[in-house]
Amino acid sequence: MIANTSLVFAEADHAALREHLFPGDGLEASAVLLCSRFEGTRTKLLLKDWIPVPYEACKVRLVDAITWPGEYLERAIDQAEKEGLTILLTHSHPGGFLEFSQVDDDSDAISVRALCQAIDRAHGSAIMIDSGEMRARLYNSLMVPSFIDLVTVVGHDIHYWWADSRAECPPMAFTSEMKAYLRRLVVAVVGVSGTGSIVAEQVARLGFGRVILIDHDCVELKNLNRILNSTVEHAIASTPKTEMFAQAITRMRGENVAVSINDSLATRHAVLAAAEADVIFSCVDTKEARMIADRLAAAFLIPLFDVGVTIPTYKTVDGHDAIIDVAGRIDYVRPGGPTLEERGVYSPESLHAEYLLRVNKDAHEEQVNLGYFKGIQDEAPSVITLNMRAASACVSEFIARAFPFREEPNSNYARTRFSLSGCEEDYCREDFWPIHANLLLASGCSEPLLGIPSLGRRQSNAA
């Protein structure tokens, strides 16, 4: 069953919280988590900030008990009320007991009730054991608790901890157990064309419980040679790419797996649909779409896998066109790590240039730079083999993060580039790029959405 509720951490925040909760003395420690809340068809809590309770401030710190002053609760209430956040009271279980005890229940009956009375929304509590694994729960208006189905930590590795099972490690990659695991997760594929249709085919057959397809284009005759599952009938009927592929997934997997969003990612509707996902694959061909995917992943703490291919060309001395390279790029972006912008995938200048090109319909000479070939226009390039190579590498990158199988740490592979001309493959670590504070991190649905005025609630309603 797909997780209806989840609590999501960026890796750095989870590591800092773990260090505080387990200082090495074997005694319980506590903290207050402040989470942005996203309500779609699923509920997501996104750790935005947390308040450590100093060890010396605790009246009691034992192996199996802790009490701490109310002033830290009051600080949390002030911040949560101002920013619309959900509060989770959190403490460690040094003994490794990953269940809420009767003492925890009794404490919540007082503390969480006070929270709910101070701020009229659901709040809760969480526990952590030394491995970093967590359990969390929310209370309704009658003070009845329900477990948060899934706790996710998005880092170089991606950790999924389920409330209904204890897992020391994820299933082995490429096994049927991995497929069963993926049935509980939601994936978004943004761009369902050359590389995107191949990514969508893979994630559907891997077994993701829900596949969200986002694209605003329709099937055309000229792209039948590179979009999986498309047919002449689809092209003649101008069937939206997402609807065409959703039908294919339904034939493959049955009902209620595919979700078709026939809209541009540059719309509020599409952004909020993608925010439902546990992982996003960006298979787009514009700088603007990559910028939005980049911001979306940061705001909702979603791991992002971005794929691109290119075939640069040049003019020979006798005037013929020739290929310089046949290349692909896969970037893995974790919340809090270097963004696609910091990696140079797009920039304010390139976004502006793309905008000018889009509004200037006569700029044919520059339009060639938007296609597969750099320097040549080709309406129906035969690039499915290149797309297959890149799409497979992109999805395999996710598997390596969620079900680690590499000989080296995943931190070595923030970017993978391959050259089919040179028969080469190389990799970059994150420290290859600068990292700046990301104000969008865990901001969720704060207005304007993703910090983009055109995605704000008022503008979208007006449109």
From TrEMBL:
Protein name: JAB domain-containing protein
SUPFAM superfamilies: Activating enzymes of the ubiquitin-like proteins (SSF69572)
One biological process term in Gene Ontology: proteolysis
GO CC, alphabetical: cytoplasm
Residue stretches making up the JAB domain: 14-124
Any single Pfam family the record assigns to this protein: ThiF
THIF-type NAD/FAD binding fold domain boundaries: 179-310
Keywords: Hydrolase, Metal-binding, Metalloprotease, Protease, Zinc
GO molecular function terms listed in the Swiss-Prot or TrEMBL record: metal ion binding; metallopeptidase activity; nucleotidyltransferase activity; thiosulfate-cyanide sulfurtransferase activity; ubiquitin-like modifier activating enzyme activity
UniProt keyword Zinc present: yes
